[in-house]
Amino acid sequence: MSRNSSRTRERIYATFADSSLDFEESVQHSLEIVADFLGVEYGFLTRITDGEQRIQQAIGSHELIQPGESCPLEEAYCRRTIQMEETLSVQDAEASPQIPSNAFETFNLGCYIGTKITVDDEVYGTVCFGDTTPRNEPFPERKALLVELLGQLISQALERRAYETKLEERNRRLEAERQRFKEITETTFDIIYRTDLAGQFTYASSSAERIIGYQPDELLGTQFIDYICESSVPKTLAAFNRVLDGHYIEQLEAEFNTKTGETVVLEINARPVYHDGELLLVQGVARDITRRVEQERELRIQHRAIEDTHIGITIADASLPGYPVDYVNEAFERLTGYTGAELGGKSYHTFLPEDVDSNVRDEIRNSLDVGESISFELLITRKDGTPLWCRTTISPVTDDQGEVTHFVGFHENVTEQERTVRLVELLNRVLRHNLRNSMNVILGNADLLRDPAVADVAAARIRRRADSLVQLSERARELKQYAQRDRSPTRLDPATLLSRIVEEHEHAFPDASIETDISTERGICAGSELEQAISELVTNALTHHPSDSAHVSLSVSDADDQVYIEVIDDGRGISPSETAFVEEGHETELEHGSSMGLWLVNWIVTRYGGSFQIGPIDNPTETGTRATLLVPAIDDEMTVEEAAQPPTALFW
């Protein structure tokens, strides 16, 4: 390469190395230097995008080769330039197949030399030189190499400028992010912290002073473990080691000692921070959840209290049509026999009996619609079909604006109280009725005592009526005593129970035949007074039998989750008037006082969640009575509390 080209090359290098010149100035000087070296008038830098050539910088007076001028790439000398790996050199453009004819007609450059410019392996544009006069000979290689060198320097400068622009933008974003991080850390309620791999604080946000009482500078260089309560040390150290192993820690609850000696609960999130694959530090956020933990503890206590109470509790959504229930406690599930899943989403009105008085139904609906409290007692039916009396109070729950958001219902099984009240009412009616009838008989026969002819008959009638009245009174007193006794379910052994009953009656009725059949291994969950109920049925069978040689069979068998007890005799059978109250659930005028013993049986059995039926035996060729008792069963592994069932309604 000649000395002239070497000097030119050095000048170009110096131009791009001059830090006092920006990119555009370096390009402009270089275009002038190379154009002079080539002996041409024009030099220009182009940008090619989307099939268009646009002049970025230029030297020379050509009116179409000025900054800002553009043309379709198909009409430009550069179209072929960007397709070539080496410099495109044309000594006579009009005759050269490398230059489109329309390009020559437009720009009228007789000679041309140019090279493409790439940035990050993508075509950016070209740097080109030319003159209106064709050359007599091609551009020599040394000149082509110089043009190629300029193209490389421009490419490098553009890549460097792009990199610097990206770097500046990244630094700007980093600074903005740093500022934003600083603003967040200084304004957030949480403690943002960093520790080294030994667990020493290297940074703590200003929230540390508000939460644990220490200023950030006091924490720097100290071990985080020094501030943790002893009870939380093991799990916190284990979590820190997991972070060092590359894991993220989320929602770790740990108790911290504050500067004033108090205890706060922090929820900690932590993660490892790496650089080039090397673990540098641990970064995390600690949130004060002391109040939340206290509230959750209070809620757990309240929830446990709600779940442990014997009163059923429901919560319904007041914002939805029909006020669907979205919560029931365990006591309500036990009360109704339905699970929470079965009850969820159902309206309060679905719990009302179908035959409830329409006025009561309307009163309940109207009270809920206007957001008022209401209390009522209704006879409802459990899932298994057993009836019970339920006392319900429904009250509205309001938000801070006074709007009703929910209804809370309290449901108490008052069957035992209602049974007692209604039994006393029944006894009073029976006693008044029979006392009135008996007094009429006594008074009517009292006048006959003056007549010696019939005095003995009248006296006998008076004695029978008086004895009947005394017996009725004794039965009523006995039944009332049972009603006033505390309900006390226990585990009863069927074999032992029947053995005592048989022994008692075989002694009192030596000519009678009593047999037993026990085909269950389970026990009975009822009160000890169940023995009195079964004994009453055996006594009735033997007492009212037409002969002394009565036959009574007692059997016990399984019936799902109940025990089936059956008492069968071969007597005359029981009349429908005596059993109607069991089937219909209430006494009629014709039945006053005639079945007090059966009332006692029904009272005892239903008190422990059972049922009682009595009637003639099914065989039309034989006479006799069949009494059946269904009572709760209890397995060996069950407790009495698990097996016991609530009382069912006696009369309704």
From TrEMBL:
Does the record carry Coiled coil as a key word?
yes
Limits of the PAS domain: 177-247, 304-371
Q: Where is the Histidine kinase domain?
A: 430-635
Residues of the PAC domain = 250-301, 374-426
Give the source's domain of life in one word.
Answer: Archaea
Q: Which UniProt keywords apply?
A: Coiled coil, Kinase, Plasmid, Transferase
Annotated GO MF terms:
kinase activity
What InterPro entries does this protein's entry cite? GAF, GAF-like_dom_sf, HATPase_C_sf, HATPase_dom, His_kinase_dom, PAC, PAS, PAS-assoc_C
* Coiled coil ranges: 160-187
Q: Which NCBIfam families match?
A: sensory_box
Name this polypeptide is given: Histidine kinase
Which species does the entry assign this protein to?
Answer: Haloferax mediterranei (strain ATCC 33500 / DSM 1411 / JCM 8866 / NBRC 14739 / NCIMB 2177 / R-4) (Halobacterium mediterranei)
Q: What is the lineage of its organism?
A: Archaea, Methanobacteriati, Methanobacteriota, Stenosarchaea group, Halobacteria
Which gene is transcribed and translated to give this protein? oye
